[in-house]
């Protein structure tokens, strides 16, 4: 008989009973944070990258305009503006901004920020037209939404 | 009850949500547009040519910076940096909402910046002081959005560098200041007082190649 006989016969298994709980916790976290896309984007969105990004603090005050070449060929190849679910023309922007402002509390209406998501193939003409209309609609805070430039791009 | 497969089911759901989640990014380059232009009041702003840093882009995405052709967009940042803090002729006129004159702004700069300005800048040909300096970006209607963003990025980089250096931070640290934190907000305000971010997007001309 060996002198150093194993005395312990405790189970060497890792208890996995709590595993489902942990996974469920992660699951709930992602379920809560996921925002399912409300609008289907109908224009091309290959957004140029930039370095000097600023983060917006108040998400509620941000509304989005998508600009780019339409994905479906039936709409032609000229860049179009998409707001919410539909294409709008340049002359519809003021009305659209006012509608968006109506959805905000009265005190914060002037703080509305328009985030422009623009495809990089877009010409500046349409962007300048949008800016002029936004000035007319008194929505002066705008943001060109861009992803962060990474080192690989340089 | 046999709960062994519970983890598998949960895993499956978890992976589904992991894949479909897009954490919304609210990041980008911000810009404040000028107020609405009234038709009946013609704006006659007399600005000295030396106080305007002109950047023009034509429909072929070629640049004209201060009336000289430029090929490398990434050089604009340094040029604009030198332009903003040139202090060619800092005046005592108090400007802006905080009533800070260019001379006071100059006095508030850290010694390294003052030395740099005294030794290398202070050109009579460039801007009088940051209070009056304007960067004007005029892009042709046919130029691409991509180059516009590249230039705007460079302009923001120049301003952030000025602001950052003024309070002893790098441009990146300055950009990441959290304005909800009183201490950060104080730094932010101190960096910006007297140096407005004057980026003007000029109306483009409709003709021109």
Notes on the structure:
The complex is a heterodimer of chains A (154) and B (209). Chain A is of the alpha/beta class. Chain A is built from three helices and six strands; from the N terminus they run αββββαβαβ. Chain A has a domain at 59-153: Nucleotidyltransferase, domain 5. Chain A has helices at 19-33, 93-102, 124-136; strands spanning 54-55, 62-68, 80-83, 86-88, 113-118, 141-145. In chain A, β5, α3 (124-136) and β6 form a beta-alpha-beta unit. The longest helix of chain A is centred in the first third of the chain and has 15 residues, at 19-33. The model of chain A has no long low-confidence stretch (mean pLDDT 80). Chain B has one domain. Helix content of chain B is 37%, strand content 13%. Chain B has helices at 6-20, 76-84, 102-107, 111-120, 145-166, 171-175, 182-192; strands spanning 27-32, 52-57, 63-65, 68-70, 134-139, 199-201. Chain B has a five-stranded mixed β-sheet with strand order 4-3-2-5-6, covered by helices on one side. The termini of chain B are far apart. The mean pLDDT of chain B is 79. The interface between A and B is large, with 53 and 51 residues. β1 (54-55) of chain A pairs antiparallel with β1 (27-32) of chain B.
Give the CA-CA distance, first to last residue of chain B.
77 Å
Helix proportion of chain B = 25-40%
How many DSSP helices of chain B? Answer: 7
**Computed structural class of chain A:** alpha/beta
Rounded mean pLDDT of chain A is: 80
Structural class of chain B: alpha/beta
Strand order of the largest sheet of chain A: 4-3-2-5-6
| Tally of individual domains of chain B | 1
Largest sheet of chain A: 5 strands, mixed
**Residue ranges of chain A: pLDDT <50 for 5 or more in a row?**
none
The name of the CATH architecture of the domain at 59-153 in chain A is: 2-Layer Sandwich
Residue-averaged pLDDT of chain B: 79
- Tally of individual helices of chain A: 3
